[in-house]
């Protein structure tokens, strides 16, 4: 079985740059919601460590909560109509690395399972 871990990367598509300073939270939703990690993205739009390293991985439902409005407001830009972008994912043991990127602007976002 491949070891499983979770990471993220945030890109500011409105400005064409990594989203440095994006506040985010990572929650395990089962059996009760528990905050696993909170942080702010670095100059590359990533966290300095995985959201969930292989040794701490447990299968289940998780949420990543990205404070897109706070990020754009801190840059002096109109935060648009997005507030907190919530991505709910189901993670399974043995599926390898889960990378959850967020591409965002004040008006839209997209995500996918990266590598």
TrEMBL record:
<comment type="subunit">
    <text>Homotetramer.</text>
</comment>
<protein>
    <recommendedName>
        <fullName>5-hydroxyisourate hydrolase</fullName>
        <ecNumber>3.5.2.17</ecNumber>
    </recommendedName>
</protein>
<dbReference type="InterPro" id="IPR023416">
    <property type="entry name" value="Transthyretin/HIU_hydrolase_d"/>
</dbReference>
<dbReference type="InterPro" id="IPR036817">
    <property type="entry name" value="Transthyretin/HIU_hydrolase_sf"/>
</dbReference>
<feature type="domain" description="Transthyretin/hydroxyisourate hydrolase">
    <location>
        <begin position="6"/>
        <end position="114"/>
    </location>
</feature>
<dbReference type="InterPro" id="IPR014306">
    <property type="entry name" value="Hydroxyisourate_hydrolase"/>
</dbReference>
<comment type="function">
    <text>Catalyzes the hydrolysis of 5-hydroxyisourate (HIU) to 2-oxo-4-hydroxy-4-carboxy-5-ureidoimidazoline (OHCU).</text>
</comment>
<comment type="similarity">
    <text>Belongs to the transthyretin family. 5-hydroxyisourate hydrolase subfamily.</text>
</comment>
<dbReference type="Pfam" id="PF00576">
    <property type="entry name" value="Transthyretin"/>
</dbReference>
<keyword id="KW-0659">Purine metabolism</keyword>
<keyword id="KW-0378">Hydrolase</keyword>
<dbReference type="InterPro" id="IPR000895">
    <property type="entry name" value="Transthyretin/HIU_hydrolase"/>
</dbReference>
<dbReference type="GO" id="GO:0033971">
    <property type="term" value="F:hydroxyisourate hydrolase activity"/>
</dbReference>
């Amino acid at each position: 079985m491949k070891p499983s871990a979770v990471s993220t990367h945030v890109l500011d598509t409105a400005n064409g740059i990594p989203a440095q300073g994006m506040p985010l939270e990572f929650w395990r939703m089962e059996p009760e919601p528990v905050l696993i990690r909170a942080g702010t993205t670095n100059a590359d739009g990533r966290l300095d460590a995985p959201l969930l390293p292989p040794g701490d991985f447990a299968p289940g439902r998780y949420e990543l909560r990205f404070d897109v409005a706070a990020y754009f407001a801190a840059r002096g830009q109109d935060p648009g109509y997005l507030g907190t972008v919530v991505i709910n994912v189901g993670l399974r043991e043995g599926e390898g690395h889960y990378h959850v990127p967020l591409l965002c602007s004040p008006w839209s976002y997209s995500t996918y399972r990266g590598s």
